[in-house]
UniProtKB/TrEMBL annotation:
Pathway, per record: Cofactor biosynthesis; coenzyme A biosynthesis; CoA from (R)-pantothenate: step 2/5; Cofactor biosynthesis; coenzyme A biosynthesis; CoA from (R)-pantothenate: step 3/5
EC number annotated for this UniProt entry: 4.1.1.36, 6.3.2.5
Protein name: Coenzyme A biosynthesis bifunctional protein CoaBC
Cofactor: FMN; Mg(2+)
Signal peptide: none
Residue segments, region Phosphopantothenate--cysteine ligase: 11-219
Gene field: coaBC
Keyword Metal-binding: yes
Keyword match Ligase: yes
Superkingdom assignment: Bacteria
Homology family: In the C-terminal section; belongs to the PPC synthetase family. In the N-terminal section; belongs to the HFCD (homo-oligomeric flavin containing Cys decarboxylase) superfamily.
GO biological process: coenzyme A biosynthetic process; pantothenate catabolic process
Length: 219
């Protein structure tokens, strides 16, 4: 039996980017490394939680001691999350693609004389909003992320309301901050009580602080 303040708690963490296929060899993706989500999963497990880690194709390896569910696309991630519920808490750190290519080709697109292909997009399911608004089986604590490049607190506060989640961990991902893909993070935690600015620290430290906050919220 694992000891620790989160012993007996089942926690879902989504992490990494998603890959949205264009054809069998090409895809649309984003710059998420999965580092922050991985660190959070590790920190929650270290506090004794049973962690289910649903991850897109990340560039850092998944943590040890958690159940890893690997997915590629947003729709696969949504399905995997649904199967994992119910949980005591859900932390949605994945950078899920907002759009997918509406009809991905099952054959490699060829260069033709007719010019270049044009891609039509379709909206992906919003996993965080869907889980937050569940009438039955909503996790007791739902934590979303907001990657912003300006007006971080205002945008993240609006996002918290729109998504229906309990907390938003917001950060400034402007290229100058070096946060996306980097080892440090400077976050603002938005809760019902307002906005808390945390000092810039290593992603591992952000993860540990967040895991402790989750432990006190679930206690
Ligand atoms: O809307 P936006 O992508 O900025 O919201 C970010 C938050 O929503 C993150 O917690 C992310 O994991 C989650 N999200 C999601 N499914 C989507 C898009 C975002 O779970 N399709």
């Amino acid at each position: 039996l694992t000891a620790g303040p989160l012993a007996g708690k089942r926690i879902l963490v989504t992490s990494g980017p998603t890959h949205e296929p264009i054809d069998p060899v090409r895809y649309i993706a984003n710059r998420s490394s999965g580092a922050q989500g991985t660190a959070i999963a590790r920190a929650l497990a270290a506090l004794g939680a049973e962690v289910i880690f649903v991850t897109g194709p990340a560039s850092v390896p998944p943590p040890e001691g958690v159940r890893v569910v690997k997915v590629e696309t947003a729709r696969e991630m949504a399905e995997a999350v649904e199967k994992v519920l119910p949980v005591d808490a859900g932390v949605f750190a994945a950078a899920v693609a907002d759009w997918r290519v509406a009809s991905a080709s099952d054959r490699k697109l060829k260069k033709t004389r007719d010019g270049m292909p044009s891609l039509a997009f379709a909206e992906n399911p919003d996993i965080l909003a869907t889980v937050s608004k569940l009438e039955e089986g909503r996790p007791g604590l739902v934590v979303g992320f907001a990657a912003e490049t300006d007006d971080v607190v205002a945008h993240a506060t609006a996002k918290r309301a729109r998504k229906g989640c309990d907390w938003i961990v917001a950060n400034d991902v402007s290229p100058a901050t070096g946060i996306m893909g980097g080892s440090e993070n400077a976050v603002v935690l938005i809760t019902e009580a307002g906005a808390e600015e945390w000092p810039r620290m290593a992603k591992d430290e952000v993860a540990q602080a967040l895991a402790l906050r989750i432990a006190s919220a679930l206690a």
